[in-house]
Amino acid sequence: MRIFDPHIHMTSRTTDDYEAMRAAGVRAVVEPAFWLGQPRTNVGSFTDYFDALIGWERFRAAQFGIRHHCTIALNPKEANDPRCTPVLDVLPRYLAKDGVVAVGEIGFDSMTPEEDEAFARQLELAVRHELPALVHTPHRDKAAGTARTLDLVRESGLAPERVLVDHLNETTVRAVADSGCWMGFSIYPDTKMDETRMVALLREYGPDRVLVNSAADWGRSDPLKTHKTGLAMLAAGFDDDDVDRVLWRNPVEFYGQSGRLMLDDTAPESTFAGNSILRGGS
Length: 282
Description:
By secondary structure, this protein is an alpha/beta fold. The chain has ten helices and eight strands.
């Protein structure tokens, strides 16, 4: 089983996670820029974080034979903070970087006018930079947030096949399926989706334009949920080709629209021995 996790926050994960992911078949990931759990107080905090995504984290993943890509954006939650919104003027510099395969995560958190404005501006950036867009649907008022998301996508002129609407569930998937956008599902302990529900939706909607991710982050989450979903699909009667489509070919097709995927040989580049790299090899 080969796996491309299209939404995972490896900055918040350990090297043990990278080892386990590699052993489970994960060969590539996309790490979306997101809220770190504590409010940022200035634009410099964003740029340091973005630099780490395109530099250090990409290097760290390579030690374990995993190709790391990222998406760059002002996340919806911090779009409400006037200390953070000036980063919108900095984004074009990062959207031109190698390994940046989409604008994201963008979308809604609390459905405020500030979020609406930041979302629209970043969809414009996706059009201008010829990149796909990764959209976060809100945890609250998810149906309303998804409907407004699809309205803004239509207004932006960004082709729906270049938009991935993520964190979907049974109440929101139909509208996104009908829109022509890609459908993203986060398989996550306690919240979002689980493997059994995901398999039921795949039976109903089929594997086309479906991406499954772990969304693993600082909270209680599992970076092997993609692998476990593949096993659940096989146990439910899906064949190896269906699993490969959902867990590999679909994310390759979607993010491949950026022209920046790096999917060459993913053998580990070196042994990551504890903190030796952090200490400059000493």
